[in-house]
Amino acid sequence: xxxxxxxxxxxxxxAASLEKRTGLTLPEVEDLWAKYDAALEQPxxxxxxxxxxxxxxGKLLQSPAMSRLQVQSPASGSSASSTPSQNSAxxxxxxxxxxxxxxxxxxxxxxxxxxxxxxxxPVYITWxxxxxxxxxxxxxxxxxxxxxxxxxxxxxYALISAxxxxxxxxxxxxxxxxxxxxxxxxxxxxxxxxxxxxELGKHGLRIHFNYKGRRYGATYLPDVAAEQGWxxxxxxxxxxxxxxxxxKEKDWKNVDLSCVKYEGLRADADYxxxxxxxxxxxxxx
Length: 285
Hints:
alpha+beta, two-stranded antiparallel sheet
């Protein structure tokens, strides 16, 4: 399944690339996230210091991500890096120093390396900008239909979608605090009987077609049509235009479409979740 820890790993991979440091591995992130999650569920403790109650991690780290894990029906390259400005780097990296990474491995990390065979999934990573009012704006979304070992695929496509989505400029370090990450693992691929043989809110859609001697293709993840409020026909037409079709909307039925529907597992986390986790690692060291 898709997990919040996988989203945190995407943040860790992006932050490490932007900050020019070595990031934690997926098993390390998953291990530390499990410890963090367990710490959140412990009863609140207080200590007296100079006559004042000092609240510890039980209350301090109530992450909103804990209630946001979504398992639902969802919505290609080498990694790249971005060179942030000097001012951005100095203001955004204080909580994520190399010392923090090193100490978290030695004092908190107890993963023994004896893991089962790694899961492989087709994967899409979506970056959004969160406004002060909680509105989302797409900042990058790229993935692959080829099954990927998750430790490699999540990192690779977290960076590709951040740096190589040609619809947008590369994500910069100063943008990191405003980001949210969505991991979508794709599954259950089934050829459609016709262009309408799929369900809104359940299926993603991948299409291919020939038009004026050229072959086109595109996909929408399962959440896209529902979020946009589109009908099936509106989704098909929009997807064809996304692929590069320039015909009239009323003529879409004249195009011989090959359609595949799929489902997926989705999880979301935002920068606040990531930063609170990293702060907890630093605090526990």
